[in-house]
Amino acid sequence: MAVSLDRRTGIVALLYWVWDGVDRTIFTAIKFSFPARFVSPFGFLGMLTFVVFIMLGVSGALLMFYYQPILDRAWDSVEFINDDVPFGFHIRNIHYHGSNAMVLLAVLHMYYQYFSGRYKIRNEVLWMTGVILGVVTILEAFTGYDVIFSERAELAISIAASLTTSIPVVGPTIRDAALGSGFSDFVLRFYAQHVFLLPIVMLGLMAVHFPRFLVFDVPMVMAIGGAVLITGGVFPIDMGFKFEPTVPPGVTVPEWYLTGIYAFMRTQYDKFVTGLLWPLIFIVTIVLIPFLDRYKKFSWRDRPMVTAFGITSLAQIMVTTYWGFYISPDVSIPLVERLVIDPLFFYGTMILLVPLGFGFTYMMIKLANEAERKSKLAKNTGPQKVATINLSDKWINWLLVALLAFQVFLNIAAYNAALTGMKNVSLFLVGIILLVFAAFFHIYRYAMSQEKNTPPPAPVRVQEDIPEDTPELSEDVVDATPEISAENSPKEK
Questions:
Q1: Number of Cβ within a 10 Å radius of residue 174
Q2: Nearest to 280 by CA among 167, 202, 197
Q3: CATH value of 41-254 in 3.40.50.300, 1.10.569.10, 1.20.810.10, 1.25.40.10
Q4: So where are the chain's domains?
Q5: What distance in Å separates the CA atoms of residue 369 and residue 363, rounded to the nearest whole number?
Q6: Alpha carbon distances (Å) from 390 to 2, 298, 394, 446, 448
């Protein structure tokens, strides 16, 4: 049942008062749209990325109460948060998996805009700032898991130090400014970059990148939040091993969004070329795509070369990401040899992927265009029927009741799991609760849209009531009634 907002009383009046108070401010300069029906989430992946960014800001602020950015206390403080702080396990897992989700959503958002050709409608500035924002997002996630100062973080810091040092002329200066001169400086400076510097840069880029109208779909936001919590429950983050300067680190790899660069560096070619120059060339090419794409149409079918480049880049990213994770399991081989990737085989595969990617993409585009041409020829005249799923009021009510009952059960189960110490199970159940709420909200929204689209009832013919005291005419009286013909009928005055 819909709630009328005409009478502004109580909390509704308060909310309207707050909204009127911030009107004509920078807050209302960006208009939010709350869709009344389901819309494809691909169109507002950027908004979902921003929602995860807010989630990371809140969870990171809570972690700052207990984290200590000191060399010999960083790892211990994170362990204390994970094991002893109430709900610390949950907040840390939300923060970690949220950072991965933000990077993934940013990449998906970029490639969706790329293949749909959105940058062609005078959105070059939005595209360029979006690509730069994606790079800064990766740096933000990179500095985040470095502040733990585990063995994995030590590997990432060592790689970052060697890459910055390899930059000609200004490399050592950049290294000293960004990383400091020792392990003690690493923790504090990465913490400052992660908490203050990079978020400020991201907010500045967002202020330019955000369009005027943003879609805020409540079920999808709840679904993304639930997915992050479920991932934290199924794959709880491991503390790893504390980094000890006197102990050699074990075999480990960086995060998934950096393993591609790690694979290039493991070929033992020049670090500057493999770790910085080639990724920089790729980023610059992506930034300049709006100026290189001279096609007049937007569809990926009508831009075969641009589409082929995008498919090829995705294929190379996936192959190099997997290659960066792979380490030979043969422990009899020395560690250095296990980490080395054969450069001939590696670069030969990369070069072979280019014609295969372009050829496969071109063939698929040809097949898609031919299938579309045949479908247009075989298309019948007249309106086309669209397959839809229409639920009756009975089934909608039953679904809402079932979801509500399941929601109550999940709340009880999550509470019991939290009491018994099953932290990952409680995190998983809370994620399911958010997904159920998203489904509940979507079905309710569907019911409201169906109610608006319901045709009005047919008009009912009303018959005049005959008074009960009116005497009925007998058949003889009716037969005796004189007939009035057209000739002797009274004339109208």
A1: 14
A2: 167
A3: 1.20.810.10
A4: 41-254, 258-298+307-375, 393-450
A5: 10
A6: 20, 33, 12, 10, 13
Dihedral over Cα of 358, 359, 360, 365: its sign: positive
Candidates 391, 301, 300; CA nearest to 112 is 300
Give the span between the Cα atoms of 61 and 115, in whole angstroms.
Answer: 36
Between CA 128 and CA 121 the distance in angstroms is: 14
- How many other β-carbons are positioned within 10 Å of the β-carbon of residue 407? 16
d(CA 288, CA 297): 18
Tens place of pLDDT per residue across the chain (493 aa): 344 445 667 787 888 777 777 666 666 667 777 777 777 888 888 889 999 999 999 999 999 999 998 888 889 999 999 999 989 999 999 999 999 999 999 999 999 999 988 888 777 888 999 999 999 999 999 998 888 888 888 888 888 888 888 888 888 888 888 887 766 778 888 899 999 999 999 998 988 888 777 788 888 899 999 999 999 998 998 888 888 777 766 677 888 888 888 888 888 888 888 888 989 999 999 999 988 888 888 888 888 888 888 888 888 899 899 888 888 777 777 777 888 888 888 888 888 888 888 888 888 887 877 777 777 776 655 455 544 556 677 777 778 888 888 888 888 888 888 788 888 888 898 899 888 888 888 888 887 777 666 666 666 666 555 555 555 544 454 454 454 444 444 444 3
Tokens 């319901």 sit on residue: 454
Cα(62)–Cα(64) distance, rounded to whole angstroms? 5
Secondary structure of residue 1 in the 3-state scheme: coil
Here the tokens at position 333 are 């081989």
Question: Going by C-beta distance under 8 Å and a sequence separation of 6 or more, which residues neighbour residue 193?
Answer: 139, 143, 178
The count of other CB atoms within 10 Å of the CB of residue 28 is: 11
Helices within 117-170 (DSSP H only): 124-146, 151-165
Give the three-state DSSP class for 416.
helix
Identify any residues that bridge with 222 across adjacent strands, giving them in sequence order.
none
